[in-house]
Amino acid sequence: MDSSWEASVTDSINAIYLLFSAYLVFVMQLGFAMLCAGSVRAKNAMNIMLTNVVDAVVGSLSYYLFGFAFAFGDSNPFIGTNFFALKDIPSSSYDYSFFLYQWAFAIAVAGITSGSIAERTQFTAYLFFSFFLTGFVYPVVAHWLWSSDGWLSPNSSSLLFGSGAIDFAGSGVVHLVGGIAGFWGSIIEGPRVGRFDAFGNPVKMRGHNATLVVLGTFLLWFGWFGFNPGSFDKILVPYPRMVDQGNWTSVGRTAVTTILAGSTAGIVTLFGRRLLVGHWDAMDVCNGVLGGFVAITSGCSVVEPWAAIVCGFCAAWVLIGLNILALKFKFDDPLEAAQLHGGCGAWGLIFTGLFAKEEFVLQAYNSGKTQTIRPSGLILGGGWGLFGAQIVQLLSIIVWVSLTMGPLFYLLQKLGILRISADEEVAGLDISSHGGYAYDASQEESGPRFYGEYLRMQHQS
């Protein structure tokens, strides 16, 4: 058989695999929309669903124009400087399939942040921060970790601490970035009206539809099979001296570690919250499952299945603990996005530095070439190199996102285009900003039924 024909077939299969993974990751956008819609009150359902659409359409343009270039362009360890508007794509390094896959990741980041500032944010503000986050802030972090030029990259010619930092599918690059951005947005906006009473005690504001929350969770679970295993980019890569193993083996193992971490976190959250609140809560369990997925996303390809169970167990308690602290400090995040994506994402980076297995690191980053030596997890005897790189990665992401997104939210607040008025918030964003409710039966008896009624009430007041 002609070798060029074999190479063509291999490239085609790898491209199909990557495209299919991109489609799965994009399904997560629908999962975010359903999860967000169910987690807010009915009077804000249309608003939160529209913001998810905006994250996709605005993020698509910003990532096409600038984001991909900043993330994967050549030049220096901090930021890329070519491929703007996909100029010179396809290249020897990247093609359209790779762009599509990375685009699906980029728009997910803005969706995470939207959840933290839900139910009290002007729609215009979403346009600003979504464009900036997907077009600049996130791509710079992606360049650090996922470009071969990046200063934290495990594929760099000059490895940090002789190891480079590992974030295989984005516990830090995607989830921690989105979580920290949402943290600053929520801090600057402040809690929703009525979230805490006059004595500072929390007032329960439950989401209006558990069905949508569960549906969103399963859609995100489905999409995570593209998020984590898909990050191998290529499936037909055989490992040297292992005739029956290749990337296809690692893809399967990565899917297994993903489900084990999410499932463990879900069951621990179920019983943990039962002990704390006295009943079985479906919404808490869904967030627990997602927290496990977020945490394992960094090390999914480089840890044993048993380690994934440890990851999920700890992720559940990280989420539960951060939610308790959030109430104590009067921090209001309707989707628990900062706690879930930020906290569990941070734990995922640390976990990888503790439990990464050298054999799997070589498979994920060196196509199984055993003549290469790589530091592995600290607990597995791999020394401090990888663990140190993970801590540097964690701190660098927190500082970068804080220095970029914090001032942006502060500026939007000062310009009066971040938070809606108290009257609009009480009425609900659907009626005050979008012309009507998402559901015919969603309005309260005393509330306006139509946008015209709302305007007349505002005029009379």
From TrEMBL:
This is Ammonium transporter. The keyword Nucleotidyltransferase does not apply. The chain crosses the membrane at residues 15-37, 49-72, 100-118, 125-146, 166-188, 209-227, 247-270, 305-326, 338-356. PANTHER family: AMMONIUM TRANSPORTER (PTHR11730), AMMONIUM TRANSPORTER 1 MEMBER 3 (PTHR11730:SF95). The lineage of its organism: Eukaryota, Viridiplantae, Streptophyta, Embryophyta, Tracheophyta. Belongs to the ammonia transporter channel (TC 1.A.11.2) family. It is found in: Cell membrane; Membrane. It holds the Pfam family Ammonium_transp. Keywords: Ammonia transport, Membrane, Transmembrane, Transmembrane helix, Transport.
